[in-house]
Records
---
Amino acid sequence: MRRVIPKLKSWTNLLLVGGILLFQLEITMAADKNELGEAIHIMVIGAHPDDCEIKASGVAAKWVEAGHKVKFVSVTNGDIGHYESAGGPLANRRAAEVKEAARILGIETEVLDHHDGELMPTLEIRKELIRLIRDWKADIVITHRPNDYHPDHRYTSILVQDGAYMVAVPFICPDTPYLEENPVYLYMWDHFQKPNPFQADIVVSIDDVIEKKLEALSVIESQFAEWLPWIGKYLKEVPKDSEGAKQFVKDRFKPYVMRAAETYRDQLSARYGEDVAATIQYAEAFEICEYGRQPNEEEVRRLFPFFPEKE
């Protein structure tokens, strides 16, 4: 169809129209790419520099190995999560740790500069996350559930939820191109029961990437070899040498990751078959949020291209 372009009265108008046409072309190309089943863009948004790695680094590694794009975002900088260090030095240390974890996983990572323990669901931070999700052109956004023990986790969830509809609304944050379609929003697994327990809608075997996940966790030493052992009263059990501490972290997390596979064996059976599911040792689980796009089984399998073909 022949496009009619209005008469331009100035270079300003020329640049404006050119920008609009370029934006329309980018949207069309993105839509065509998605339809062709090419790179899926996944963003995992956690409250602290370690939350995404604990809950979703296995599936992140699988996505990357399949040729897709993953970015972890920490909404706070983690600047009080230690018993000896705080402020800028700790924030810098934690950012460096998750950067190394991201290198191991083959993903991108970003730590936002908001104080640990003081996060509030403000309009400014909501807009910040809307822009990040749009810039990443996210097909999937994963975050905490809103009934978590930590206020930063709860408010991260609220911030992401509050932006779930807005990422496709053109005139909020108009400086960042809006998404033509809402992403699929997912919650990370937790064990909290009130007011609602976690619902395991998607459970993924990570047996093939478990060593990569454990390696990524082991380099976040400030948390898993220092802070959590200190607050959990088992710091004396952690070896003093770095390599020993890393192995301690790996051994400590193995039963935790096994727990998801043991708990959701039926859900694994539904997608992998009973025989295969019975052999799965490690898994990560996700709940489909009622906000955002609601995927059917076909789309779940497209977005999580790890399940065997249905017979």
---
Amino acid sequence: MNNAQLYTVIALCLYAVSMALIGCISYGKSKTLDKFLIGGRNIGAWMTAFSYGTTYFSAVVFVGYAGQHGWNIGVGSIWIGVGNAILGCLLSWLLFANRTRKITKKMQTKTMPEYFEKRYASKGLKILAAVIIFIFLVPYSAAVYKGLGSLFSAVFPGVETWVWMLILACLTAIYLVAGGYMATAYTDLIQGIIMIVGVICLIVAALRHDAVGGLGGLMENLGNFTSAAGDPHPTTGNQLANIFGGSSFKFLCFNIMLTSFGTWGLPQMIGKFYAIKDTAAIKRGTIISTVFCVVIGCGAYLIGSTSRLILGGQLPAGGIDSVIPSVLMEVLGGGTLGILLLAVIMILLLSASMSTLEAVVLTSASAVAVDLIPSIRKKEFKPENQMLLTRLLCLLFVACSFIFATQNIPIIVSLMSFSWGVVSGCFIGPYIWGLFSKKITKIGAYAGVLSGLLTVGGATLVITLNSGFSAAAAKSPEMGVAAMAVSMVVVPLVSLLTKNSQQDKERVEEIFLCYDQE
């Protein structure tokens, strides 16, 4: 074991012990389902903001998105980070945070399927939403495993990728099952600080590399870049240095829309608004989370845009998914300071993955334990039994995601895009319209969920039959964006053609009174 590996192992051990201790300490604060799932609706601005940001960005953003788009598009890929910060974070907080907090508190809902049930008086819609969450968030979390496993394998080439994925699974399961949302809120704050420090260090290290020559040198050197012989992803210097992505402009726009507007319908993101304690915390959290997303999102794609210069135009043996790990080893692999920074960056990426994974697991487990099983079971659960079931399902979901991730599915970006597009495409219309309009009907909400599902599913089937699954995977951003757009249009359109009963109108009027109260 060399010095870099030794320091990294020591740092990982200290980090793992810290996370486990937080989980144990939080156990006493998570003995009711309300506290386990949403922290008793008493989470402050800093913890909520960092929890939102760390859930948004996982190792897949660095290893998958930033590596692939930075390599293929160049500096134009930074617009994805800008879009994520402004559209996916700032606008989401401004439009939805306060209304979501108020309406979910009024209806006493803890999950997205519960929100649908009580907003639209439909147990069937609750069950459908729970099934979609459980099925489609498995590949989402599997993508998180794959992204982290690829990176750690580059630092520890003698250790199998599945070993690192197993370590991530066990560590996440320990503190999540013990402490629930409270544990994740505390750990997300720590993980967020680590991520900010790590990204800033990596940006400085990448820009100072001789082949890059600082920010000004990056643009000049990319403009003069020529692809190496045999490059499977050839491109021109003009393309890489084009701030708007050049010929990739359309592809860039779809990725910005998918990864930004997609957060508006993802239950693991929206759930952060359930837990924040008051309006004052929301105002502070909006600023904090936006700054966090600017640093992490833009920083990741900036690092990705330096990859061709740092690696001399030679795509690593592991392909696109190995671009960022190879850059990391190149810029931080030597000297004592480089070794220490490498350890920090590894913790950064572990933190990013764990925070995303814990949010997805908690969302999926609650969808089954709180929404699905009680809806089809005749007898009601005792509170203590439902808590136990939720904890056990957290373990089960971690295990299922790990098993799925160990299958050799190399396209981690497409894997995440499909999941992101389906889940957000199904929920974005019924969720947002349900916050703002009293006239949305149960049938309109159903139509929104099903139209989003059919848009992605139907397009995937048609493209796969005609051109193969790889062609469908390449179109996953477009399909996801289309699903979200269709859902947003279908919900109010179908609601105009259908009517709520008088009883439903009175119920919705009562719910909407929460916006006039604090």
